[in-house]
Design goal:
237 residues; mainly alpha; 11 helices; elongated
Length: 237
């Protein structure tokens, strides 16, 4: 039996005599839990906002120039397939143990989702509607912001919901280079075979994902009340 297996067996044996959750540990680490939560939220917001700021103009350009759809989709698709560990390992010699090393892969993973949903939303606007808007004298910029974006909003927000939930899950890897978030609790639990921080990290990550999804869903319903009656089919990637 190797050392890891022996340690795991010893830990499991110890769990037989201890509760799965040590509530006293949680009460003693409230400040750290709040701090890790704020780190997780910060990384999520930075990732999704920067990803959207890149994906949105790319989708607008691709909706106007169809030749650009294939190369942009291919590039973002390739980035999406790179394993997170490999991505971080490749960036370490360049960006070191910084937040940039974590944020760049997370942004890369969000691009495909955000680009495809934004493009699908813009493409869903009927040509007759756009022709009518142009006939009323709207410029291309006015057509985009007054007609296309509002009508595409349900699908765009659907993409933001998917990207946000995915980012919250992936941000747990930030702990691998000491960049906090709830992933630090999971890593600590695995390293010490102490289940309480591991369970706290997993549960709070899932809870944060649910909360963020509900928040964006609420924003979507407030911003697009007309879409509730007809329903909107989001594009899953």
């Amino acid at each position: 039996m190797n050392d890891f297996a022996a340690a795991m067996w010893g830990s499991l044996a110890q769990q037989d005599t201890e509760p799965l959750i040590r509530w006293i540990w949680i009460s003693d680490h409230v400040d750290e839990i709040v701090s890790r939560g704020l780190q997780h939220v910060y990384l999520t917001v930075v990732t999704v906002v920067i990803g959207f700021l890149i994906a949105f103009p790319a989708a607008v350009y691709a909706s106007r120039h169809r030749w650009a759809v294939s190369p942009i989709t291919s590039i973002s698709g390739v980035l999406y397939t790179i394993p997170a560990f490999a991505f971080i390992f490749l960036l370490l010699p360049i960006t070191g143990l910084s937040l940039t090393t974590v944020v760049i892969p997370l942004i890369a993973y969000s691009l495909l989702i955000l680009f495809r949903n934004t493009l699908a939303g813009l493409d869903s606007v009927e040509a007759e509607v756009k022709e009518a808007a142009v006939g009323m004298g709207l410029s291309k910029r006015q057509l985009l912001w007054r007609v296309e974006v509002p009508l595409a909003m349900p699908v765009i927000i659907a993409g933001l919901r998917i990207a946000t939930v995915s980012s919250i899950a992936l941000i747990t890897i930030a702990a691998l280079i000491g960049r906090g978030g709830f992933g630090q609790f999971i890593l600590d639990g695995l390293n010490t075979f102490f289940w309480t921080p591991l369970i706290v990290g997993v549960v709070l990550s899932v809870a944060l994902a649910f909360a963020a999804d509900l928040l964006l869903l609420g924003l979507q319903r407030l911003a697009t009340p007309w879409a509730q009656a007809s329903g909107v089919r989001a594009v899953a990637t």
